[in-house]
Amino acid sequence: MNLLARFLGGISERVLAVLFAVTAAQFPVYYLAYENTLAGVQLEAGARYQELLREATQLHLEVEDFIRRHEDNADAVFQASGRIHRSTLERYRRYTAMQEALRAAPAWERPLALARNFDPALHGALHFQPGLPLTLEAGAYALAGVLLAWLLTGLIGMGLRPAARSA
């Protein structure tokens, strides 16, 4: 029975290590898909911002002044327009900052950069397809997955071992 338990324990460790390695290796693929989706929404936000900037410039105003005039206007229609313009400006700034942060992050900081700049709406918009990345970065994440699996199976194994008997 002990031999069977060791055999199954060894198999489960290997299966878990492979699962963690394959899952962790998907991170660079997901990161790229997220970054591409962000680039698309930032491009659209940038186009909307350029329209706003062009209109403000034609009136010899800064964008903030242009928006503030809409927001401060007594007419509810202009106030609504001001809210739309404010949202356009905020989205453009937010997406630009997110894109810069993700692009500037070295490979080992990317999980934290993604966590800090994660937007559930962007996640919902991207169409992630798992792949088999054959890059050094994916290999490093796969190795990290193997090490994590090894650590978890070791901890679980320690919890399942019977306590040593004192003589």
Describe the model.
Helices cover 80% and strands 0% of the residues. The longest helix is centred in the first third of the chain and has 32 residues, at 27-58. The mean pLDDT is 84. The chain folds into two domains: 1-26 and 134-162, no CATH class; 37-129, no CATH class. It has 167 residues and is mainly alpha-helical. The two termini are 24 Å apart. The protein is elongated and about 80 Å long. Helix 1 packs antiparallel against helix 7 (136-160), helix 2 (27-58) crosses helix 4 (76-104) and helix 3 runs antiparallel to helix 4 (76-104).
What number of domains?
2
Strand content: under 5%
List low-confidence stretches: none
* Overall geometry: elongated
Annotation field: number of helices = 7
* Count of DSSP strands: 0
Coarse structural class: mainly alpha
- Summarize model confidence as the mean pLDDT: 84
Alpha carbon gyration radius: 26 Å
What is the first-to-last residue Cα distance? 24 Å
Sheet of most strands: none
* Secondary-structure element series: HHHHHHH
Helix content: over 70%
SSE layout and pairings?
Layout (H helix, E strand, L loop, with lengths): L1 H24 L1 H32 L4 H10 L3 H29 L5 H7 L3 H6 L10 H25 L7
Task: Give a quick summary of the entry.
This protein has 167 residues and is an all-alpha fold.
List keywords for this structure.
single chain; mainly alpha; elongated
